[in-house]
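Recall that a protein's primary structure is simply its ordered list of amino acids. Everything else, from secondary elements to tertiary packing, is in principle encoded there. The following example makes that idea concrete.
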Amino acid sequence: MPTQDQLFKQMTPDLQALYEPFYMAMYEAGLPFELNEVLRTPATQKAYHAQGRQPLSEVNRLRKEAGLYLLGPEDNEYEVTWTLKSRHFAGPDGRARAFDIRLLRYGKPHWQTKWDGNKNSVPDYLEAARIGKSVGLVAGGLWSKPDYPHFQLDLV
């Protein structure tokens, strides 16, 4: 598992420049988090895309090929990505144009999108998305089909 510093170095310089104010704003808002994933291979994306769409045996075959841990039946009940394309893929410079985070609850990662750990009446993942947007990131949590942990460069 890469360290937080190693994950940061997988980002393009433009993404790093937006991550830094994002990190500070998250800290100031009382939203502890860590980077979950930056660079991603097409095989990993294919495995993620199969989750919730294909039988567990096929999902785990793809996950094994991608070097990912195998899932149990309960983990294959929901979709985790909606595309086979990704800004997590390495660009010509070998770096990613997207990152995923995981919020921490009592120091442990959690995915509860309604959790309001800083008690300000805004679910923490939604608040993170708003913070991302405020610093110039495209925040997956604000999409019509939310992908709360996802942030990327706006490549117009």
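The two ends are 32 Å apart (CA to CA). Residues 87 and 139 are 13 Å apart (CA to CA).
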